[in-house]
Amino acid sequence: MSLRKPKEPVSPFIRSGASSRKIMLCVILALLPAAITGCLNYGLSAAALLGVTVGTAALSELLFRAVTRKQQTVQDFSAVVTGLLLGMTLPPDFPLWKAAIGSAFAIIFVKQLFGGIGKNFANPAATAKILLMVLFMDDMTVWRLPLTDSLFTLPDNVQTASAVVTQTPLTGAHATYWDLLLGNTAGNIGETCALGILLGAVFLWLTRISSPVAPLTCIGSFTLLTALGGYDVPAQLLSGGFLLGACFMTADYTTVPVTRGGKCLFGLGCGVLTFLIRHYGGYPEGIPFAIVMMNLLTPYLERFTKPHPFGAAYPVKKKRSVSER
Amino acid sequence: MKRLNGIRLPRKKRTEEKPVKPIPLPERVRIPMLMHSGVPCTPVVSEGDLVTVGQCIGKSENENSVPIHASVSGRVTAVSEYRTITGETVPCVEIRSDGEQLLSDDCNPPKIESREDLIAAAKASGCVGLSGAGDLIFRKLEACKKPKLLIVNAAECEAYLSADSRIMIESPDDVIGGIVMLMKLLKIKETRIGIQTDKPLARKRLTEAAADQKGIQICPLPSVYPQGAEKVLIFHTSGIIVPENQTPADLDILVLNVSTCAFLYRYAQTGIPLIERVVTVDGDPVEKPCNLLVPIGTPVKELLEYAACQTDNMKVLLCGGAMMGSKIDPAEAVVVRQQNGLTALKRVSTLRETPCIRCGRCVDACPMNLMPMDLNSAFLRKDPAALQAGHVGLCMNCGCCSFVCPAHRQLAEKNQQAKKLLQKEGV
After folding, report:
1. Architecture of the A20-148+163-304 domain
2. Any CB–CB contact under 8 A between A311 and chain B?
3. Given strand B74-83, what is the order of strands in its sheet?
4. pLDDT in tens, A207-233
């Protein structure tokens, strides 16, 4: 049975018209409000950074597929999404060449080496962000107030995440909740404008491009723990990379369970882990770690939450021999 | 009650309000000897014979077949060959119509007083499932020894098709009459008619016709494809789950299509076998979509002409609806007994399959709760164990997964190939 049979159309003869490219373009559209606000706030350097991450991601994908002689996939725009998402999690003055390293790493090592779109086990943008955090911690913690040149860095005495949790409000203690919502504060390019992020996320949910299950359970569990821990809930929610990660990275297709139950558990796990890392971990931001850790669990979450086929017999418990796979 | 998954198809039923019209009598019909799922018949007439309407022209000794009858009166011009939609080559009787439509003397109202009479009548009438599958109704009646529940399929969930709807609207008494007859003869106490909520008029007519009858319940179904699939229909009308590897007959449930019920009733009244049927002709290149009463064996060309189909713009012609129909050759194909529609399409997706992006839409769409993307990758790496574990056998080729797939993967089609692979492996 050859798979390369001549193209004879088969049923169903009508299709929904959805395509991977349209989906990715919608995701890009959804990311734009936050990205554009970031560019307006932090100026040309932010725009250049986004351009570099997007360009490097697309170029890496193009070259990798060409060199390995595989079906070209750059036209589905998924690499652009990865590049854009990564760029949005970086500070506006992050050196361009370092950003390019992150972007290329995301596409080549995290995505393509595992088989490309749909095959990678970890979120490329989140993994690359972790890499950059580990490699270039100093550059990762230099922010700038909007429309100014005044730099803001982590206070020297702050070693753990506990205080930074909220990278942004620390800026001068002047940031109100409104500032956080509108992005009128120092922070990473695409992470400050909470309103823009939510706008994009709601657009994706309403158009049914992504499911709100994981993002909502993630935000929900995080909020609950933050409230129980007695922290400033709105500030925790609106600052740092939490919202961008929760809304977009936990709604990724490839690295999140496809089942509804699996998504739910995935979101819960992300929320809990983010909370723990922010308050007890050693890094100023928890969400990328939480997401990648949960990515590792995805195959298991999916297996345990598989829907029961209609009318199929419930499996009788049988002893499994060790030799059985 | 929990509903099974499905998809919302674009509403394309332009023919819903088009009354059934008889097509002008074709000059020539070609009647294939296989229009049911089973064994083909052997022609019992030969070139030069004169035949009348309703005369038996094909028979088989095999129990998996029903006789085939002439749909026009006239002279047999040839006994040739015909390629069916399943790819089999079977004999076919060509008749040149004399325009008289003389009714055969054999067509007398049968005496139907018992279950056995009913089975015999269903066989003699050449009755097959009229909704597309073409299963043998008399075998279905035989298999269901003591039916407790009759479920009538009036869902008609396919895009474009409205033949069943028109039968319900125009002859609701035949439908209910058939159901009452079946209930009486088979001693069935309860009947449920499953009808999609997007057919308010048909539902109203049936409700009116069934008003005086006891035990007939009309169950509204959501307008979600595929409500007409047997297992989905049974679950949504009665809440009963048909286990894998079992048939509704094993659970004492008899499932019949609404048009089949109406046909059985008419046969009991007139004795005229299955020689004509209602066919919806629609699709985007069709300028005058319509519902036609067509003699079996009429070349589809004549239907296309009648419905003013721009054949130059047509990419594909289908026997049945756009979701589950099969491709036919517009020059050669004829109308067969199980054909509820003739769908012409200007475009078909020939987009290249792109890698699965694990969006999970197929999982959310599958009425059988399968994981089509996992089955697909299991099939591509030829892993019978994984296919078995994923219950690929439950797939009914409704096409929901392929419909929603943004990577344009032929998920449903690959599942059918996977089933064949399992058979070959003997699993």
Report:
1. Orthogonal Bundle (1.10)
2. yes
3. B28-32, B89-97, B74-83, B50-51
4. 999 999 999 999 999 999 999 998 888
